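DM from R.C. (forwarded with permission)

"hey, sorry to bug you on a friday — could you get me a structure for this? deadline for the figure draft is monday and I only need the backbone to look sensible"
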Amino acid sequence: MEGQLLKLNELGDIISNEVKNIVSKNSLKAKLVCIVVAEDVASISYIRGMQKQADKLGIAFEIAHFKENITQEEFFEKIEFYNESKDYSGIIIQVPLPKHIDTFKLSYIIEHKKDIDGINPHNQGRLFGGKPFLIPATAWACDITLKYIEKKYNYKLEGKTAVIVGRSLTVGKPTFHLLLQRNITPTIIHTKTINKEQIADKADIIVASCGIPELITVEWIKQDAIVLDVGIHCIECNIDKTFKLCGDVNAKSTLHKASFVTAVPGGIGVVTSALLFANVIKSYYKLNEDREITFEFEK
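My reply, with the result:
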């Protein structure tokens, strides 16, 4: 019996509705600025999607465009303006950035209370210490999705093993720490790992965040495993030369053994988008009332 391709629109709606209700009920004046240095077609599409979602939630959304040749010093000065302005509840930086801008230094520059991407070392350290505040949204989406599966399908997470494919600062590494907090035993594999498939096929949970289209196939999967597909790619189909959206997981292949594989599109990305704005609300309350809130969907 094949597994289930899991759409996460319901979970995304649960998160968005709670955010919207909090904004409306409390008349919050939350505002997010999205900082863009140059832009490409993919970025434009993504930002338009954020704008639409912000409008639905009642959160103000501003796009700050800067030319690609802006110096690092000038760029950091712009960030400092948004750090200090009381008009903004959150800051998000659209990537990729030009190579001359040091992203490590940038992570220190962003005010940690407005750091919607969760990349400031203060927020990374709190996650490492088991007391997270602003969590990178995609990693948080993986965590909340597992909690959703546990509750809806009576699947016990505690004691399970997991393999995370990828070690990025915004997905692989933070997901590792979030899984630890759920008493899951995680392992990270990456480009230099030997015998990747043999490690992965013993895991109860796979988090695919490698950035390679459909890398994860049935050979990577333990029977009845849960597979979270973080990737999204637009690839050309060999047969008819059309294009399709896919993830890091070959869903058709892996569903022969997996119990659940999250859909692409309509999966982790939906939850990530909703959680970005949940972070804006967390930031708002920290800035304006000096308190850290917990959403119902987190409990």
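R.C.: lifesaver. The chain has two domains: 16-117+273-288, 136-270.
me: no worries. Residues 92 and 116 are 6 Å apart (CA to CA).
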